[in-house]
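lol ok so funny story. i was supposed to be doing the assay writeup but got distracted and ended up predicting the structure for this chain instead. priorities right. anyway since i did it might as well share w the group, maybe its usefull for someone
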Amino acid sequence: MPEPPVDTPAMPTLDEIFEPDAIATLERAAATFQGADPFPFLVLDGLFRPAFLRSVAASYYAGDDVRWHRFADASREVKLQIDESRHFPPPVAALVEVLNAAPFLRLLARITDIQGLIPDPYFYGGGMHQIQPGGKLAIHADYNLHPVMNVERRLNLLVYLNEGWEESWGGHLELWDREMGASRHRIAPIFNRLVLFRTDSTSYHGHPDPLACPPGRARRSVALYYYTHSREGAGPATRGHSTLFRERPGETFAEQPLATRLGIARNHAIEAARALAPGGLKQLLKRLRS
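and the output, tada:
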């Protein structure tokens, strides 16, 4: 006797998670994105259906949950992250599934004029982000090559989930010029705000000042990154770099203790091995020995 079919929930559509006029609003923003300074970026509010986005925010785990990966470099990066999709609550999984599917990729291509966008099924460095009081992320440019797929990072997309956020709490995303002379834009992480920006080796951004929200609140976001096989007019990059942290004028990063540096290297190795699974660790060791 044949097995009964498994009842798999259908993936939401763009229309089910976005407000009725959101797609048209995004398409009209192409010129704004492409002409922005100091690098192409876009900030749009109210695109998602509030009830849906509230379900995403409500599904976030408490900060002491063991599923969070903890970054604790006091000078550069104090935050929580979950990039293993098996730990995504259903509303988060639904959101990222839609934003990584072909209809939204085609929309991103129209906005950014970047063709052949590739989503990241490994959510490497992305997924669920949470910064608690006192946390921060120093100004930086992101890694440029995906460690598993060997494709070039082109776009960052952030969806903020923080209802009732107060200006005095900080947590602003700052966009800096390529000379690191000044912050050009400060973007508050308010509820139902989407930020899209081009990423390369000089698209400096971050949340550099310690978060001042009260206990029990946190700066929450969903982060998705998009890639291409190569940049226009060039083949695939042959030299990759990790995150490039930059000091602001008058700022000096503390020297990382050896234990911290070894711990960061270990975490990166574990993440890469996990992404290569099954047999990820064996493949990683083979690569390191070659």
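The chain has a mean pLDDT of 88. Residues 10 and 221 are 24 Å apart (CA to CA).
back to the writeup now i swear
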